[in-house]
Amino acid sequence: MKVNWLEHILGDNWTITPAGGSTGEAYYAHTEGKRLFLKRNSSPFLAVLSAEGIVPKLVWTKRLENGDVITAQEWLEGQELNTESMKHPRVAALLSKIHHSTELLDMLMRLGKHPLTPDEILRDLKENQRILDQVDPSIEIHQALKFLEKHVVEVHHDVQVVCHCDTNHNNWLLSSDDQLYLIDWDNAMVADPALDLGMLLHTYIPKEDWKQWLEQYGIVPDGHLYERMIWYAVSQALSFIQWHKMRGEYDEASIRTESLKRLMIRQGII
């Protein structure tokens, strides 16, 4: 979206700057002590997330003549969590709140999100990999796909919740008034909670602390949960590698491939 469209909405006394991100559709705006985070075509899901206190407050929503929807949220002073602070019980508590929210689940289902199954995830990964193999085959990725194929039947699970699908520390915001938020919900899905838990714990939490962290989250872990967590951690790692390669971001894809390799070595997959 052109910045001058935003100037038309806000007025020319606002300073508007791109906020970065993968879509290029987000902006910061400020004027005389007022500050907003603006985004084009955010999901209606944002209103429920705001009401639940999971993202910064939604200030207003405007529909343009061309059908585009602009949302404005509070732009808060704060900081992203670092890798160490991901161990804090508040992270477990907020993720548990999200996974146990019937309001979030009902809204996402009304928006047409059907539960994502392991079979669908595997099929999409294999289809994308056939394309990528034409230019950049990778032994680690094929080893990961074989692992996912071997265990796909074992990881089916009846409980489906709202999953953020990218619990990277950069998406956790601690505001200056000590409120914790989980932001960037563009890829949210209805899925097994192990999808979020797998990548988060395998990335940030020492294995000897998993039981305590999951008890803070609100469950007593068992072997089946751990099996599902490693399956989803591998599948998400593959998904991010493919995404970066399709965008031509080969350095980032290589970094994530090395992380995937370390994950599979730790788990005895390779």
Detailed description of the structure:
InterPro entries: Aminoglycoside_PTrfase, CcrZ_PhaseVar_Mediator, Kinase-like_dom_sf. The protein is α+β, with helices and mostly antiparallel strands and 270 residues long. It folds into 2 domains: 3-75, Phosphorylase Kinase, domain 1, CATH 3.30.200.20; 81-266, Alpha-Beta Complex (Aminoglycoside 3'-phosphotransferase, Chain: A, domain 2), CATH 3.90.1200.10. It is 46% helix and 17% strand. It is built from 10 helices and 10 strands. The strands form 3 sheets. The protein has a 5-stranded antiparallel sheet, with helices on both faces. Strands 6-8-9 form a 3-stranded antiparallel sheet, covered by helices on one side. A hairpin with a 7-residue loop joins strand 1 (15-18) and strand 2. The longest helix is centred in the last third of the chain and has 24 residues, at 223-246. The mean pLDDT is 91.
